[in-house]
Amino acid sequence: MKKKSIISAVIVIILIVSLIFNVYHVIIANNWFQNTTEETIAYTGSNESYGLASDKSASDAATESSDSEMLLINAYISLAIEDNETADSLIREYVKTNGGKIVNSNNYLTTDDYKVFTLEVKIPQTVYDAFMSYLKEQGKVENASETSYDVINQYNDNSLRLTMLQNKLDRLNALMEQAQNMSDLITIEDAVSQTIYEIELLNSSQNELEYDNEYASVNITINPVMKESVETSGFDDILINAFTASLNAFLTVIAWLIRMLFYILPYAVIGGLGYLGYRRLRKLK
Hints:
The protein is of the alpha+beta class.
């Protein structure tokens, strides 16, 4: 009866120690009272339309562009589309059908193995608004931006400089015909070469401005539609986590007691042998 009482007391002590360790581990070590919430993964973009900062639409601005206006348009749009691979093909076809050009394209996998497509396109400004409306109809607009600026002053300045350089070139050619010695001829030829070089640079700049005025630049990102995580009540998780934490704490206490037992065992064996030897010596006396 006494042996059973001792065993019961040992079991009770083990359970109490395990419970104390469990409470410490859950409440203090894991910050039980810290406010934690489960986040839901979802796109937060909007489908709101957007346009130029001015009152006129982009295509109207391009159509009405004259000597007093020369607009350059750059836009970016990010879309979330269920079948984004098919959408990529359809957008490419739309661009080509409407006289646009694919400047750059790419696709890559995200860390979640979702494929993302990117396109950089040039689209005629006359169909720019229609193109942007078409893109917004394909899926959910996550992000969008647009900038436009007037370069007519730069274009006119370049035209004036070209006229002046051309006049300069004509005068240099006339002087070259009148050159009296080789030194003057070489000096004039160098000036002619430099003037021709400057004219070519300005012509290249003018051609680039005219091209950019004719075509709008649009960068497109086509994302897949991410599945939204379902928010749970959290009660089931609380029970599972509590049971798992309690079991781990109990096993930790058992492991600690076993470790302590092996630490104490040598001393217990030596003490027991000493006690037995002491009793035997007393019997011999």
